[in-house]
C-alpha cells in the first residue's frame, strides 16, 4: 500500500493568510473549484442558495434528472431552455475575470493551475479562463441519447446553436423533442443530471480533476454548497493529504473542520488577490 505523505494543516486562517498562501510556495500548484455562487453576481440564480430565485427554493430539482427526461422529455427541455436563456444573457463578473487573470499569472510564473466549475454557464470562458474543466457539462452543447453515436456518449456532443427548437416551442410534445441528425435518437442537454455519474461522459474529465487534487498544494472553493460529488471527492483528498483548503462563501458556512472559510464575496476578494500578485 502506498504511504501518503502527511502535511500539517494550519489552523483556520483569514484573508491575509489566504492571499499570502496564493502568492507563496503553496500557490505553486493551485486547484480552484467554483459553484453557482460565483455566477450569482452575474444574475444567474443558484441551485441550493438562499437567493429568491434559487432552483431548490422553488422545489423543481426533480426536473434535473434522467428519470424526468425519460418521463417527459419535452417538459425537461423547456425547463432547461428557460434556465439557459437567462444564463446566456449574463456577463462575467469581477470574480470570473479575476480567476482568468490568476490563471495567466500562474502560467507566467511556471506554476500549475486548474479551474474546475460545477456551472454549465459559459462565464468562465467568456472571462478568458482556459485551464478549465466543466465537470457538470455546458449549456452551449447538447448530445445524443444513444450511446456510441458520434454525437453522444462517451465523448460526443452536438452544438446547441445547431438545434432547431422551433417545433418544440410551437407545439410542445414528446414528438417535437429535437432529434440527433445522425441517428434520429432524442437529443438531450449536455449536463450531468442529479441521478447520473461523472463517468457518463468523458467531457466531464473527472479523473483529471482527481489527478490535480492529488497534486495541488492549495485548493480553493468558490461559491459552492459542497453538496455534489466533486466537492466531496476533492475535499476528502485534501484532508487525506493535509493541504490547505479555503472556501470563499459570503454566508460563512463551515462545510468541514479542515476547510478555512472566508466570509467574503468572491467578486470582491478575488480581485484583491489578483491585485496583490507581484508583477
TrEMBL record:
KW Endoplasmic reticulum (keyword) present: no
Amino-acid positions noted as binding Zn(2+) in the UniProt annotation, renumbered to this chain: 144, 149, 180, 183
Sequence ranges assigned to domain Deacetylase sirtuin-type in this UniProt record: 8-279
InterPro entries, per database record: DHS-like_NAD/FAD-binding_dom (IPR029035), NAD-dep_sirtuin_deacylases (IPR050134), Sirtuin (IPR003000), Sirtuin_cat_small_dom_sf (IPR026591), Ssirtuin_cat_dom (IPR026590)
Enzyme class: transferase
Catalytic residues in the record: 136
Membrane-spanning parts: 218-239
Keywords: Membrane, Metal-binding, NAD, Transferase, Transmembrane, Transmembrane helix, Zinc
Matches recorded under SUPFAM superfamilies: DHS-like NAD/FAD-binding domain
The name this protein goes by in its record: protein acetyllysine N-acetyltransferase
Amino acid at each position: 500500500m502506498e504511504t501518503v505523505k502527511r502535511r500539517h494543516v494550519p489552523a483556520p486562517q483569514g484573508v491575509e493568510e489566504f492571499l499570502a498562501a496564493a502568492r507563496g510556495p503553496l500557490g505553486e500548484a493551485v486547484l480552484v473549484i467554483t459553484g453557482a455562487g460565483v455566477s450569482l453576481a452575474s444574475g444567474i440564480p443558484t441551485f441550493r442558495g438562499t437567493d429568491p430565485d434559487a432552483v431548490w427554493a422553488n422545489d423543481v430539482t426533480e426536473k434535473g434528472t434522467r428519470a424526468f427526461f425519460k418521463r417527459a422529455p419535452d417538459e425537461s427541455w423547456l425547463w432547461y431552455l428557460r434556465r439557459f436563456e437567462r444564463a446566456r444573457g449574463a456577463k462575467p463578473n469581477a470574480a470570473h475575470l479575476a480567476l482568468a487573470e490568476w490563471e495567466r499569472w500562474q502560467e507566467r510564473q511556471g506554476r500549475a493551475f486548474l479551474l474546475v466549475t460545477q456551472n454549465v454557464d459559459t462565464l468562465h470562458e467568456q472571462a478568458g479562463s482556459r485551464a478549465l474543466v466543466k465537470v457538470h457539462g455546458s449549456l452551449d452543447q447538447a448530445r445524443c441519447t444513444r450511446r456510441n453515436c458520434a454525437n453522444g456518449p462517451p465523448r460526443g456532443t452536438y452544438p446547441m446553436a445547431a438545434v432547431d427548437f422551433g417545433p418544440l416551442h410551437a407545439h410542445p410534445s414528446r414528438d417535437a423533442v429535437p432529434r440527433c441528425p445522425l441517428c434520429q435518437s432524442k437529443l438531450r442537454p449536455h449536463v450531468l443530471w442529479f441521478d447520473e455519474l461523472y463517468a457518463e461522459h468523458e467531457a466531464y474529465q473527472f479523473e483529471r480533476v482527481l489527478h490535480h487534487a492529488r497534486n495541488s498544494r492549495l485548493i480553493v472553493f468558490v461559491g459552492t454548497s459542497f453538496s455534489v460529488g466533486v466537492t466531496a471527492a476533492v475535499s476528502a483528498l485534501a484532508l487525506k493529504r493535509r493541504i490547505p483548503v479555503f472556501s470563499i462563501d459570503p454566508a460563512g458556512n463551515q462545510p468541514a473542520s479542515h476547510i478555512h472559510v472566508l466570509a467574503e464575496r468572491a467578486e470582491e476578494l478575488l480581485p484583491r488577490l489578483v491585485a496583490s500578485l507581484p508583477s
